[in-house]
Amino acid sequence: MYQTALASLNPDWLSHYYEASVGPFRSLTKLPIVEAQKIQANLVAQGEVFAGKRQPDYLEIRRELELLVRDKFIRKGGKPQIQRPHYLILGSCSWLLEWYRNGKELRIPLRNFDWETVASSLVNQGCPLTKVVAESA
Questions:
Q1: Which of 29, 83, 88, 109 is 20 to 30 A from 115, comparing alpha carbons?
Q2: DSSP 3-state assignment of 47?
Q3: pTM (2 decimals)?
Q4: Residue 107: which H helix or E strand, with range?
């Protein structure tokens, strides 16, 4: 019992959350902007999932921030292997499953990562990412 509790405090995996019908490691920002905007508009019209509650300029802001973070990562010696990031969290957060109609969690052991290709950030839950990135630029 204690080993399970301790493992949750010191996880040795990253989790990726996704919609089961879409599959893991899909990202709107990898798509051409017009295609991504159509998908986002459909999610908003349906209003059933977390992504459907985003502000109208969400995709533009996210794309800009992803490029800014990628550039900073490279300047610090990082070697990203893809143009747009995939998002994972350290350990698990079961309520993220609620962001999706049929949410799934994919766990990947930390030992499977080449840390020169992984950018990480710790964001205070009360502080918007745009503020954190802008202040650290």
A1: 29
A2: coil
A3: 0.75
A4: strand 103-109
- How many of the other CB atoms lie within 10 Å of CB of 116? 11
Q: Is 104 helix (H, G, I), strand (E, B) or coil?
A: strand
Within the chain, how many helices (H) and strands (E) appear?
Answer: 4, 3
CA distance 115 to 107: 17
- Secondary structure (DSSP) of 65-102: HHHHHHHHHHHTT---SSSS----EES--GGGGGGSTT
Q: What is the pLDDT of residues 52-96, one digit of tens each?
A: 677 888 889 999 999 999 999 999 999 999 999 998 988 998 888
